[in-house]
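Posted in: Protein Modeling Q&A

I'm a second-year student putting together a small comparison for a lab meeting, and my supervisor asked me to include a predicted structure for SDR family oxidoreductase. I've never done this before, so apologies if this is the wrong subforum. The sequence is pasted below exactly as I got it from our records. If anyone can share the C-alpha cell output, I'd also love a short note on what stands out.
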Amino acid sequence: MSEPAPVLAITGAASGIGAATVQLALESGYRVAALDKKTPNFTFQENLLQLACDVTDTASLEQALDCIEERWPAGLEALVHCAGIYRTSAAETLDLALWQEVHDINVTGSYVAASVLGRPLLRRGKGSIVLLSSIAFALGDGTEPGAAYAASKGAVVSLGRQLAAEWGPRGVRTNVVAPGVIDTPMTTIVNSQEGLGKVLENIPLQRLGAADEVAHACLFLAGRKSSYVNGVVLPVDGGQSII
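Accepted answer (user: helix_wrangler)
Welcome! Here is the predicted structure, written out as C-alpha cells:
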C-alpha cells in the first residue's frame, strides 16, 4: 500500500507567498490546509481544506487543528507560516499602536502558530516548521523605513532558532525563510519608480523576486529532502543581502 500524501498547513494562504505555496504544494502532491483570516469559514475540495483562522488567536488555531485532524486523521507533517503584515513609518514618528499591530501579527502570530500547529508534530516525534522572516531583519532601509517590521522579523529569526534548538532533539525541525523584495500585493516599493530603481541597484540579479520562488524554498525546508536541515535562515533575495 502506498504511503498517504503528507499533510501541510499553510498560514497567510489567501494571497502572495502563502497562496503561491498552497498552489505549489498541491502540485507537489501534498494535502493542504490553507489557513487565512480572509478565507471562507470552511471549504473542502479533494486535497485542499480552506479554513478561516486568526494566527494571533490560540482558540482559532486550535479549532483549525481540530478540523484538520478530523479531515485527515494521520495529522500534520509540516507547517509553513506565511501570515504577516508590512508597515512602514519613520522611527521618530512611529505610532505605538502600529508597532503593536506589527508585532502582534508577525511575532506573536508566528509563536502561536508554531506552538499550536506544532503540537501534533511533537507528539509524533517528527515534522517540520518553516517561519517567514525577511532580509529586513539584517538590513536597514532608508527608502522605506520600517523599524517595527524589521524588529518583528528579527524576532521571528530568533524564535525559529530557539525552536530548532528546543524541538530538534524531539524530531521537529524549524527553519526560517528570509525573502527579499518579492512582487506581491504587500510590496509597496513598486509604487515608486525612484524607490524601485534604488532597490534594484542593490540586487545583483537586477529584478524583484516572484512569490513562487519563495514557495519553492519553503517547500524544500518543509519537506523530507531537507531532513538534516535545522535552524537555518535561508535568504531568497537575488543576492541583496550580500551587498
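A couple of things worth pointing out for your meeting: The mean pLDDT is 93. The chain has one domain: 7-242.
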